[in-house]
Amino acid sequence: FDKTRFKEDDVKSRLHETAYLNPELTIIYEDKRGAETEHIEYHEPEGIVGFIKDMNKSRESIHDVIYFKGEAEGITVASSLKRVLSKMVSSGRKLIVVPDSLVFPTAGRSPSFSSNVGIPRS
Predict the structure, then answer these.
(1) Which is nearest to 106 in space by CA: 73, 68, 72?
(2) Neighbours of 60 (CB within 10 A)
(3) Single pTM value for the model
(4) Rounded to a whole number, what is the largest CA-CA distance in the chain?
(5) Which of the residues 47, 73, 104, 110 could staple to 23 if both were Cys, CB 3.0 to 4.6 A apart?
(6) Average pLDDT over residues 90-118
(7) 87: which DSSP letter?
(8) Angle in degrees, CA 71, 74, 76, rounded to 5
(9) Given pLDDT bands bounded at 50, 70 and 90, which one contains residue 27?
(10) How many other C-beta atoms are found inside a 10 Å radius of the C-beta of residue 77?
(11) Comparing C-alpha atoms, which of 15, 108, 100 is closest to residue 62?
(12) Is it the case that residue 6 has pLDDT exceeding 80?
């Protein structure tokens, strides 16, 4: 039989994503293959709000993280978003702020959706 091998960084990334999606959960990763055991705890009490903050911590924000949660017919959905700046463009006497992306983390899908915003012409 073939052995299934996983890349260590992929496993760590998936565990961290799972911690963001389950804020009440603490996940412990231990790698005992080396001389010293590598021990990492993944716990994100802010959930997807923390994911958005961490993802954009080095970028200038237009506003605070927006979070909403709802339930219908026994299904709970939570979402969070934040606009960040890509660049500022001077157009005559106007200063135009161009948002870079709008991010929606969701379970079971790609964690981000980007929308490019065009610069209005004067």
Answers:
(1) 68
(2) 11
(3) 0.63
(4) 69
(5) 47
(6) 46
(7) E
(8) 40
(9) very high
(10) 11
(11) 100
(12) yes
